[in-house]
Amino acid sequence: MDSTTLRRVRRAAAALACATALVALPACGNDDPDPEAGARSKGPVTVSGQNFTEMQILAELYGQTLEDEGYDVTTKLVDTRAVYMDQLSSNKVQVVPEYLAGIGDYLNTQANGSTAKPVTTNNVEQTLDAVNTLAESVGVTLLEPAAATDQNAYAVTEDFASKYDLATLSDLAAAKVPVKLAAAQDCKDRQDCAKGLRDVYGIDITEVLPLGFGSREGKEAATSGEVELVQVATTDGSLEDDGLVLLEDDKGLQPAQNLIPAVNTDWLTDNEAAATALNELSESLTTEKLADLNAKVDVDREKPVDVAKEYLEDEGLLG
After folding, report:
1. Element (H, E) at 11
2. For a tag on the chain, would you pick the N or C end, based on fewer CB atoms within 10 A?
3. What are the CA-CA distances from residue 37 to residues 34, 72, 208, 270 (Å)?
4. Which CATH class is domain 152-247?
5. CATH class label, 43-149+256-314
6. What are the domain boundaries of the chain?
């Protein structure tokens, strides 16, 4: 029996059990105008995260999954991780779609200062073990990581890749061509950006143009020939339309950024069913699927709420 069928059987069995229990209850009058609705409600839950396309989609996926479990969901997206992490620790927010190394690096800096030795690596299991300890100390529990990972990545045009026969970042280094890079403003001295591309791969980065992470300006700089390399995300669903291809991070420069539910620990104590549902969602997500969802919003201009609902239905995660 595959996982989707198993989920449907499990949910059907649970529904039958609930129905049997309701039949067995004695009549108690009609004080509740809608007793069935009252029985379904598991209380309020707030889902938060940062306000950009991928997180809008993930917040909808999480929110609709929790609504299907019987929760009254409020979604509150904000500008920075610092805002929602404080609220997640204090139980003003209960659930956040997170990135494994992202939350790990943030918590490590908060606990040990900006010069703290990194605890995140390209290894998912090792990183999860290290980050779990930091998360537990602030009242946050990490659930199961998805296969989907949104890492920093580097892309070139299809023509440039063909000219130098490039598939990996090591190939780019071996080509021994000078490279201008369009990237985030803080890229120059970051180990996962220009510094690591030089030190780990030996790529001849001659200049970093601070045009933003995965920005339209950066991509246009690449396609126009102003730069050879542009910083993007592994889940960017518009790369093919832009004529860009990712170069594989074959030396593991980027830390593990697997999608993972971060949940307030106190709230989780009484809401294990929510954890089960969110873990089932994580189990279904791959990098390719997430990139497709992003493309539906960014390229096809569909709404995150509709994209999320269609995905959950197609994966058998609702009902």
Report:
1. helix 3-24
2. N
3. 6, 11, 57, 20
4. alpha beta
5. alpha beta
6. 43-149+256-314, 152-247
